[in-house]
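Notes from hallway chat w/ T.B., transcribed later so I don't forget. T.B. wanted the structure written out for a chain they're using in a teaching module, and asked if we could keep both sequence and structure tokens in one place. Agreed to drop them here.
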Amino acid sequence: MNRPLAPFGIAAALCWLAAPAGAQTIFSERNISAQAAFVVAQAAIAACKKDGYDISVVVVDRNGQVRLAVRADTASPHNFELARRKAYTARTFRRTSASWAKRMVDEPELSGQKSLADVIPLGGGVPVDAGKETIGGVGVSGSPGQDKDEACAAAGVAAIAADLK
């Protein structure tokens, strides 16, 4: 098979990878701390508990890895997995999982994103933003509606809002 442009693509990649002298070789990333994840989870649980809902809550870090996860004693087993996926969706798409789900309907050309591993088009996931960076996500599952899940997740993020400036 003849690929006359392949050498140009390889050359372009090598030029990009070749760091010029003085290029930054170390960088810093902000991330949600374990303590902040704990505060978020506590606040989300308290917000839902006051309305009588036992939930599962999962907080993921900037890489989408679970930082903290809690399942209420009476929460359904599947709530835990749903909460994790909602948190992951909110983190990776840098928007609430409900707004991402709506986008899949409004922009059907993007619907292939639903086949990505670990995302879920359900409400209840909220990103954790520090300035313009998304440093984590929180997902809630177990209330009688996705809007209530999202409200509890948002209450969790609100509990650390002062630290996210």
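Follow-up for T.B.: The radius of gyration is 19 Å. Might be a good example for the class.
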